Amino acid sequence: MNFNPRIRLLNLMYDTPVESLARKVYMYLFQRKNYEIDRQTVAVMHKILTPASNCIDIGCYRGEILRYKVQLSPRGEIFGFEPVPYHYDFLKKKFPRAKIFQVALGQAEGMAKFYFDPEYPGRSRLAAGEGAVRHNTLQELKVRVDKLDNMIPTDLAVDFIKIDVQEILALQLKPSL
Predict the structure, then answer these.
(1) Which end of the chain is more exposed for a tag (fewer CB within 10 A), N or C?
(2) Sign of dihedral through CA atoms 128, 129, 130, 131?
(3) Pick from 170, 152, 169, 150: nearest CA to 161
């Protein structure tokens, strides 16, 4: 049983109307660099996106940036990619207009191990880099990996792509069955 107060508080906020606000406050207080990056990303989106813009969000997590894409481009096509089943299910329910895929993107197609860290989800990754995550908290998941080119229409003009992924080491993918 995990008694980490941060995790307990996060779990209380998941899937509630205050989750987004609580996440912003937490980032502002404890992850200032990430807070600033998100703030700048949203500012850029406000300047360049139109109601018909087509957008891609790679590494959606809980959809904080995806939410702005859906709001700012109501007539555009919005694609989201999130390999973690729990977050994928949340995103499908929260953003029914967006096309959400439970897949990690890579240079090859197949299956791969994904190391999910429930205590620090932002450190989860396809390949566990040394010291990058606390190994005692990792959950190993099998995820589908595919190429972005296989996931979106080839003739679609994409106006904005956000990529939020951890460093990916060389992967040995097992062919899809």
Answers:
(1) N
(2) negative
(3) 152
Domains in the chain, start-ordered, CATH in brackets? 5-163 (3.40.50)
Exposed, middle or buried, 104 (CB in 10 Å: 0-12/13-18/19+)? buried
Helices and strands (H, E) in the chain, number of each type: 6, 7
Structure tokens at 94: 């929260």
CA angle 167, 64, 99 (to 5 degrees): 85
Taking residue 87's Cβ as centre, other Cβ atoms within 10 Å add up to 21
What is the C-alpha to C-alpha distance for residues 25 and 67, in angstroms, rounded to an integer?
Answer: 17
Of 61, 76, 38, residue with least CA distance to 121: 61
Count of beta carbons in the 10 Å neighbourhood of residue 25: 12
Residue pair 139/84 in contact by the 8 Å Cβ criterion: no
Tokens of residue 45, six digits: 């989106």
Segment 63-122, tens digit of pLDDT: 999 999 999 999 999 999 999 998 999 999 999 999 999 999 988 899 998 888 877 777
Q: pTM for the complete prediction?
A: 0.82
